[in-house]
Amino acid sequence: MTAVRVHRLVVTSEGQVLAGPVSFELPTGATLGLRGPSGAGKSTVLRALVGLLPPPLKAEGEICVLGARVDGAGVDLPALRARAALVAQTPVVFPASIMANATFALRHVVRASRSALRERAERALVEAGLWDEVAGRLEAPAEQLSVGQRQRLCLARALALDPALLLLDEPTSALDPAARATVEAAVAGLRGRRTVLVVSHDQAQLARICDDVISIGDDSGGQ
CA–CA separation, 46 vs 197, rounded Å? Predict the structure, then answer.
């Protein structure tokens, strides 16, 4: 099965091409890397997949995500974004506890008891490779975490939704080498268990954690 199918996607802003044309398919259960030079529009493509392009940006071409045409009539974009969770490049934590951050998106999507939400969040923290570092201080402010820990907390927040598709935008670009290795290990641990699309400028990293890699913005393919 195909989780994502993109055909001749072009993103423009007032007539200027910002990204594309790009075409690719992401099979269910696979990890695909999307690489390219700075300014190639990698992050823009990622946002187009879940209808998060701000005006005046416009997407043309075919975008099918989890069986839905993103630009189709009547598409429920909030519901799609819960199933196709986007983790942004800059980790954003809220002025609340680690656990409150981990359950933030979940509380807005799933009707369940507090204990059930907490259980799902704890499993997500394990999957994101953060549990061992925070298990004894889940009620501590999330703002006390390091940048690398914050990135994994944002990953856990997305994983708690049990998404059918995970979209990662430059997950290690703002980190020091030690934090980068830890986050990369967490992402690599998802391989074969989750359907993941990773945007990165680091070709070597993508080769380590992805089943396949396509390029945009140069002559090496992907269009």
Answer: 8
